């Protein structure tokens, strides 16, 4: 049986380095987004702001992510992965440090939006590059490292920010926000020698360059035949191609499943103390820390389990558990605190584990010519969901109460479950080119016997 130098490569030190350097961007992303949580209340003490400005600053990075992923996904498909892979980290460093000089709310808002744009760019660049180098047997696991590192960065920012808030005085918010430059600078240094994607080079008429990289870093015996699928693909890489008939259903699925996942996620975890207090449960350190701990555990669970079963059952099981846990909280109005905390912990674990699909599915559903562009659109759509969850939850609690809001999040997760029943494809075990093709094609079986090697591809009607 024929093998493919990229898709059937043995896992090597190069793959692990590329995974670390690529997914390290997610850690920086999570840190940047999480730092505002402890910093904003301190900023508001010395810079009185209304609820509207507070909400805008809190959601500013999400607004930036929407713009950055939409724009730079397309740019990445046009000019290549590696160049943007370095530029966006440089922006992380400069913009993070610039927050030290903030003088008013508008300046902070602008800088946070710009940081969000850089974060949005990294979502599309790093995920795409990791996917295009990963062997199919390990692709899901390597991509799942990204969401797990995002969670680490998010929780780390809150821990560091909370500690600095206690000792930093009136201007502690400046240093909390500026600390995101530290992981970004370290990652910038590590990323500088990452090679360009051979798949992208072949797609853009530079197969010989791609082959040289492939031989140097992956397989010394690789030939041009290993890049033939990319060379043969006919696509201009324009946004029109992203919305072509053969990609529309997949694009709709990837956008909607991610949307239905993040609305409950951001609604619950941005305002967890508020929700607990509304349910008459003391929002103490241990209550919120225990739930956040399950976020970290869930990230590890995602890495370990995503390659064990197919993408489709993973999606369905995750949405079913998210729906059940939130409805169980919302329907029992006088539930004891232990019951509610346990269900929130389950919700945290499943949400974090399911986030593995946020990098896996968009990377696998679209061809190289539009992979970053399509991923960028999916990220942008998901940020609409994140913004809705963040901005509307306080209003929802005032109008419907915490139980009502929890029921609404359960309904949103239920919609995601129904969408996945109808449209979720199976891409495990396929080469990246096969996974991106809208056809039913049986994957190649490898020695591992894992679903990544022997699951069938099901393109749902």
UniProtKB/TrEMBL annotation:
GO MF: carbohydrate:proton symporter activity
InterPro entries to which the protein is assigned, alphabetical: MFS_dom, MFS_sugar_transport-like, MFS_Sugar_Transporters, MFS_trans_sf, Sugar_transporter_CS
Pfam families: Sugar_tr
Region feature (Disordered): 435-461
GO cellular component: plasma membrane
Bilayer-spanning residue ranges: 20-43, 49-72, 84-102, 108-130, 142-160, 172-190, 251-272, 284-307, 314-333, 339-361, 373-397, 403-424
Cell compartment(s), UniProt: Cell membrane
Ranges where the Major facilitator superfamily (MFS) profile domain occurs: 18-428
Keywords for the protein's UniProt record, in alphabetical order: Membrane, Transmembrane, Transmembrane helix
Recorded family membership: Belongs to the major facilitator superfamily. Sugar transporter (TC 2.A.1.1) family.
Protein name as catalogued: Putative major facilitator superfamily transporter
Organism: Rhodococcus wratislaviensis NBRC 100605
């Amino acid at each position: 049986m024929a093998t493919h130098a990229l898709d059937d490569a043995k896992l090597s030190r190069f793959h692990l380095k590329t995974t670390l350097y690529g997914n390290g961007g997610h850690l920086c992303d999570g840190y940047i987004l999480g730092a505002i949580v402890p910093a904003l209340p301190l900023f508001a003490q010395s810079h009185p702001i209304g609820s509207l400005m507070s909400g805008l600053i809190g959601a500013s990075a999400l607004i930036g992510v929407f713009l950055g992923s939409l724009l730079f996904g397309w740019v990445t498909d046009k000019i290549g992965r590696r160049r943007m892979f370095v530029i966006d980290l440089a922006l992380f460093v400069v913009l993070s440090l610039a927050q030290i000089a903030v003088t008013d709310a508008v300046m902070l808002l602008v800088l946070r939006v710009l940081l969000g744009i850089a974060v949005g760019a990294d979502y599309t660049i790093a995920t795409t590059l990791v996917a295009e180098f990963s062997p199919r047997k390990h692709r899901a696991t390597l991509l799942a490292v990204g969401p797990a590192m995002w969670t680490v960065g998010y929780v780390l920012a809150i821990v560091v920010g909370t500690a600095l808030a206690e000792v930093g005085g009136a201007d502690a918010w400046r240093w909390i926000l500026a600390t995101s430059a530290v992981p970004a600078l370290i990652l910038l240094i590590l990323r500088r020698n990452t090679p360009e994607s051979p798949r992208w080079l072949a797609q853009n008429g530079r197969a010989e360059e791609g082959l040289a990289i492939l031989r140097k870093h992956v397989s010394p015996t690789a030939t041009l035949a290993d890049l033939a699928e990319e060379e043969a693909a006919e696509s201009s890489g324009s946004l029109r191609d992203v919305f072509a008939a053969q990609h529309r259903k997949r694009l709709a699925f990837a956008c909607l499943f991610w949307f239905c996942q993040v609305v409950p996620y951001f609604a619950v975890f941005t305002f967890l103390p508020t929700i607990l207090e509304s349910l008459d449960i003391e929002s103490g350190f241990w209550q919120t820390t225990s739930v956040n701990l399950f976020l970290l555990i869930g990230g590890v669970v995602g890495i370990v389990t995503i390659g064990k079963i197919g993408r489709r059952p993973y999606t369905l099981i995750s949405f079913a558990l998210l729906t059940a846990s939130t409805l169980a909280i919302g329907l029992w109005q006088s539930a004891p605190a232990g019951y509610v905390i346990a269900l929130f912990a389950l919700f945290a674990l499943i949400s974090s584990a399911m986030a593995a699909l946020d990098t896996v599915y968009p990377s696998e559903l679209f061809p190289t010519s539009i992979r970053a562009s399509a991923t960028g659109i999916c990220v942008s759509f998901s940020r609409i969901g994140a913004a809705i969850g963040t901005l509307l939850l306080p209003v929802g609690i005032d109008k419907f109460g915490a139980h009502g809001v929890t029921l609404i999040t359960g309904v949103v997760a239920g919609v995601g479950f129904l969408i996945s029943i109808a449209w979720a494809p199976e891409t495990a075990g396929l080469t990246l080119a096969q996974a991106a093709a809208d056809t039913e094609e049986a994957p190649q079986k490898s020695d591992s016997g894992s679903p990544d090697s022997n699951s069938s591809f099901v393109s749902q009607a």
